[in-house]
Structure formats: C-alpha cells, structure tokens
Amino acid sequence: MRSEPRVIVVANRLPVTRGRGEDRAWDVSPGGLVTALMPTVRERRGAWVGWPGSAERGIRPFSHEGVSIRPVTLGDAEIRDYYHGFSNRTLWPLYHDAIRTPEFQRHWWRAYLEVNRRFARAAANTARGRDIVWVQDFHLQLVPGMLRELRPDLRIGFFLHIPFPPEELFAWLPWREEILRGLCGADVVGFQTAGDAQNFSRLARRFLDLDGTDTELHVGRRKVRVGAFPISIDFSEFDQIAARPETLARAKEIRKRLGGRKVILCVDRLDYTKGIDLRLATVEQMLDRGELDPARTVLVQVAVPSRETVQEYADLRTTVEQAVGRINGEYSQVGRVAVHYFRRNLSREELVAHYRAADVMMVTPLRDGMNLVAKEFCASRPDLGGVLVLSEFAGASRQLRRALLVNPRDIDGTATTLREALAMRRGDGRQRMAILRMMVRRHDVHVWAHEFLEALA
Ligand code: GDG
User: Is 457 part of any domain?
Assistant: First the structure.
C-alpha cells in the first residue's frame, strides 16, 4: 500500500523563529496555525515554506523536529511593500469591511506579485509528485495559480484566515481579477464561514465569467471546490492547562488582586478590527450613566502589540490609551483601578489563568475571520463558569450560538447585553458554557486540518 501523500504548507511565516540565545537556535513559534499544522506536517514527513520574519539573507533549508523548513527570504523593500504595504494596508482593511480606508499603490502590488512568485517557485521546488500543497492566507493569494502553472501535477489547497469581502468592497481592488484567478488555481478554496465562501464564488463567477455554484466552480476542465472550514483551537491543551491546580491558584490570586470585584476580560491584538475603542466607549458610557459600579466591577484589557510601524495602528494605540486614561482618571481610587490595561503578550499559562478568572469575556470585533480567543475562553472553563459576550461580526459567532451575541457598533445594545451577562444566573451561565464547550471540543483544530486535507485528497 502506498503511504499518504506528504503535506507542504506554504505560509507567510515559517513555524520557527530564531531564539535570542547566543546560538540563535530555531524555536517553534507559539500560535494557533503552527499548533494546528505542525503535527500533521510532521506525521506526513512534510515541509513548510515561509519567510523567517527578518531581512536576514542566505538561510539554508534545514530540518526541525522532523519537518523540512524552506526559508523564503525577502529584502527590506519587499518587506515594506509586500508585507507592510499590500498585505497590511491594502488587503487587511479591504477584507475587514474597510474599517480603515485601504490604500492602493501599484508598487505595492508589484512587490506582492514578485513575492508570491518566489513563494510559488519555492513550493514547486520543494514538492514531489503526489504531494499536497496547502497555501495559507491573504499574503499568498496568487500562489495557487502560479504554482499550478509550474506544477499541474500537484493537489493544491488554499485557506483564507480572514473574511472574504462582498462584491461592493472587493470591486474596489484594481487587481481583483488577478486575485480571483490566483485563488482559482487551487483545487479546494477554504474560508472561515459559508458567507465568505459564497462571496468568493459569486465574485469568481462574475469577474472571471465562470460557471458553477456557491460550492463548486468550473475552471477550464478543472473543478474547484469552495467551502467553509471554520478554524479552531487545540481544545484539550487549554482544557488541561485550565484544570491544573497552579492555574486555579493563579486565577484566584488575580481575582483577589482585583479586589474581589466582577471581572470583565478582553484579550485582543491591538488591531482596529477588534473593536477595542468602541468597547471602551461602551464601558465609559455605562460608568457615566451609573450602570456600572467601579467598586463592584473591573475591566481587564490585554492588548498584544501588533504592526506598530503602520500609522493606523499607532493611532489606535493612542486612542485606546487615552480612553483608558480618561476612564481611570474619572473612576479609579487609590488601590482600586477601574480599567487594567496590559499592552503585552502574556504567557500561555498566564493567559489561561486570566480566562479562568473572568466573570464575563468580551470578544467584540467589528469584523473577524473567526476569533480564536472566544474559543480558547470556552476551552479554559472546565468549571462551566464565565459568560461569553461575542460580536456577531466574528466568524466564531456562526458556531458559538449560545454566547450572548452583540452588534458592537450598537453601544446601547451592547451595554444592555453586558449588564445581562454580569447578572446572569449561575445555572443559565453553566448551561450555556456546557454547550459552547461541547461545540469547541467536537470541532477542534485537528478536526479542522483533517477535514480540509480530506476535501483535498
Ligand atoms: C487571524 C484572524 C482567525 C492573544 N493575546 C495573547 C495571546 N493571544 C493569542 C490568542 C489567539 C491569538 O493570539 C489571536 O487569534 P485571533 O483568532 O483572536 O486573531 P488574529 O491574530 O487576528 O488571527 C482570525 C485567526 O487568524 C486564525 O485563523 O481566527 O479571525 O484575524 O490564539 O491566544 N497569546 C498569548 N498571550 C497573549 O497575551 N500567549
């Protein structure tokens, strides 16, 4: 019997980063995608093609824990134009409801083309016959088409981690046909939600004049499958960390240090899609109206620094920090802060301890492909405690139906729901959490990877 085909992952970033020690050894990077895919790639004796994350040149391919690592190097100008420019300032805002105005620059696009070509070539050189190539995310949307030209023999999959916009927005993109054609090079194009998948297949039919349905496109003689593959987390990992006595002890300590008040927790990358500013505005309004008592409730915002060289992110940081300062200036007392704001990355254990310490978790992005924080929170509550308030504009809301769903732009509505969450009866909360946890447990990240690869096989 022939063995299963190897899996080659192609992603903007490699799954390993240089350590800071003297030997600068490579360490596996933390993060969902790596946790999700490394076991599969390792099992299938596969490879990972990606950028090492710096302008360092001349890094030779090497093997790490049984995975063959194929670095794609980028120069400073390419990092600026392909990554900070086209990826983060054109595609990211455009695909997130144009919450910030996307910029369209021809030289960014040219760099995007060039870098995608380099990734496609690297993948073509890495893959052997029968291998499966799985391309990840918005940085590399042209790779499936380019790779198919180089290697028509390969099975090619593509997964988009962020939303796929509706026609009204996607049509803004001067290179819309090129992007659609690039994606149609794959055999399976996967999205986070059915809505994203539908946006894509409708646009491909309209702009590329293809036949097909919402779930299948006819590209020449090939059939391209289009579908939703909602990404998830390693449920058992969070569940286990959450159940450790030391996590419990730390959660208790956190609650004690917060003065035994009710804890509202928020954990986000410091990104304008995450709705941090509107959430603070909601809380500020509630405090102003006396709907929230700072003696009895505290907000903890963990904000992980992100894309700090991009102006919009620097502006957002200023807005958020001014709001935190204003609220604390008005409502804190000696030894009793109204909003705790941490602009840093917590360790995984510390993060889970915070999840366990929360009474209410607020995940209120304005638009989000999935949002793993919402799922991690559920997995971290084996005690069935905690209430999840979740934006209906996060992909996760399609699965986590028993969360309290909100429209974060509706400040009054969100405030009402937050009050409801804070006052929820224990039994109701536990029942909701049990259902949420069952959902995340059944659809964990291993199921996600397996289902996608099955569809592609
Ligand atoms: C993109 C899409 C999609 C956060 N703070 C800390 C920390 N985190 C970790 C979380 C979580 C991850 O970062 C954030 O994942 P999200 O899904 O919330 O958001 P994006 O970074 O925007 O990811 C998103 C995802 O891709 C996967 O497809 O869900 O929609 O935008 O895992 O735990 N981790 C640690 N300390 C922190 O302080 N250790």
Answer: no
Pocket of ligand 1, beta carbon within 6 A: 30, 32, 161-162, 231, 267, 269, 302, 304, 345-348, 351, 368-373, 376
For residue 214, the enclosing domain spans 7-229
Alpha helices in 184-296 (DSSP H): 194-208, 235-243, 245-257, 276-288
219: helix, coil or strand? strand
The tens digit of pLDDT for each residue in 257-282 reads: 999 999 999 999 999 999 999 999 99
How many whole angstroms from 269 Cα to the centroid of ligand 1? 7
Nearest CA to ligand 1 atom 30: 369
- Domain ends where: 203, 229, 255? 229
Nearest CA to ligand 1 atom 26: 161
Q: Are residues 306 and 438 in the same domain?
A: yes
β-pairing, 62-64 with 16-18?
unpaired
Tokens for 366, please give them: 């304005």
Rounded CA gap, 37 and 88, in Å? 24
Given ligand 1 and candidates 231, 269, 388, 440, which is best to mutate, with the most ligand atoms within 8 Å of its CB?
Answer: 269
CB neighbours (10 Å) of residue 75? Answer: 13
| pTM of model > 0.85 | yes
Amino acid at 107: H
- Which atom of ligand 1 lies nearest, measured to the CA of 345? 38
CATH number at residue 339: 3.40.50.2000
Final residue of a structural domain among 174, 195, 229:
229
The SS3 assignment for 399 reads coil
CA of residue 52 to ligand 1 center, whole Å: 19
Query: Are 162 and 263 members of one domain?
Result: no
Which protein residue's CA is at the shortest distance from atom 27 of ligand 1? Answer: 161
89 C-alpha to ligand 1 centroid (Å):
19
Q: State how many domains the chain has.
A: 2
Mean pLDDT by 10 residues, the chain (457 residues): 82 90 83 79 92 88 93 95 97 98 98 98 94 97 98 97 97 98 98 98 98 97 97 95 98 97 97 97 98 97 91 95 98 96 94 98 98 97 98 98 98 98 98 98 94 95
Residues 356-400: pLDDT tens digits? 999 999 999 999 999 999 999 999 999 999 999 999 999 999 999
Partners of 343 in the β-ladder: none
